[in-house]
Design a protein that fits this description.
Helix content is 29%, strand content 26%. By secondary structure, it is α/β, with parallel strands linked by helices. Helix 7 crosses helix 9. The longest helix has 13 residues, at 44-56. The radius of gyration is 18 Å and the shape is globular.
Length: 293
């Protein structure tokens, strides 16, 4: 019996082969857009953290490597940054393209570039539509990187993608990348119901499942139950499952260091604060500064 008969790792309509697009059925993308809201619903702590560090390091040109519906990208465009947004999910990109069209009278959005790209081929994909481009900063936030599962059970693909992020940065450029506190989730079997990134206006329940293979946690599945009673576009209760690779803090830290040949400055934050200020954070945020030479 196949594993998928025992444990359904994706919502209906999501492909089982190739690069996993967990939003491929369209429904999850629509519900997720409702869940995260618009750029005005981004938490002030997140906005101040990200834009503050970008300005501190004189970053102007930013690659949003997991733009999804475009919410973070729009926040950065509004703050005056030059943004290139990519995602592997065409269903998510449709929402970003629609958002850009709705902002077409705002001249700040004239230079917002939105393209489909894969982390596995990121440098080549970018060269195909922006030859010679490198970036002052790359962001991959909102637990996005954990969508990439470990097909070969040795994390080779994840390591390659982290190196690709480093390749498209200018010398001195910044990589912002995060993951949930999977150490705590594995130990407790529970996920914090709040998010440090957005102020969701709908009640949300999250059921956490941890898949252990040969004694090793290989996958965490989160079943989101979002109560959208006042939204005619969606059912009163919208449920979908997203699956993540459970990155432990120590291992992910070493993988990032290796992606930059152990030469980058590496800072780690807990829910946008210093590590020693948060006992049990929901997220760890890593900021890598590529060496100048």
């Amino acid at each position: 019996m196949s594993a998928d008969k025992v444990f359904h790792s994706r919502s209906q309509g999501i492909p089982s082969e190739g690069v996993k697009d967990q939003y491929a059925d369209g429904k999850a993308a629509r519900v997720w857009k409702k869940y995260i809201g618009d750029s005005n619903q981004r938490t002030q702590n997140y906005k101040n953290f990200l834009t503050g560090l970008l300005r501190k390091h004189n970053c102007v040109k930013v690659l949003d490597a997991a733009c999804g519906t475009g919410i973070d990208s729009m926040m950065l465009v509004d703050e005056g940054f030059k943004v290139v947004s990519v995602d592997a999910s065409d269903k998510m990109l449709k929402h970003a393209l629609k958002a850009r069209w709705e902002k077409r009278k705002d001249h700040k959005y004239d230079e917002w570039i939105i393209e489909e790209a894969s982390w596995e081929t990121l440098p080549a994909d970018i060269q195909s539509f922006l030859p010679g481009a490198t970036f002052d900063a790359v962001i991959c936030l909102g637990n996005s990187f954990a969508h990439l599962l470990d097909e070969f059970e040795d994390q080779r693909t994840q390591k390659m993608c982290l190196r690709n992020f480093a390749k498209v940065l200018k010398p001195g450029g910044l990589l912002f990348i995060d993951h949930r506190n999977y150490d705590a989730m594995i130990n407790s079997g529970a996920t914090p119901g709040h998010s440090i990134y957005y102020n969701c206006s709908y009640p949300v329940d999250i059921k956490t499942s941890v898949l252990v293979v040969r004694g090793k946690p290989e996958l965490v599945a989160l079943d989101y139950l979002i109560h959208t009673n006042d939204d005619a576009e969606l059912n009163e209760q919208s449920m979908f499952r997203l699956c993540y690779y459970p990155h432990k803090l120590d291992k992910f830290t070493s993988m990032l260091d290796e992606a930059f040949d152990n030469k980058a400055e590496h800072s780690i934050y807990a829910d946008f604060k210093a590590l020693d200020q948060v006992d049990n954070p929901a997220y760890y945020i890593h900021v890598m500064r590529k060496p100048l030479n």
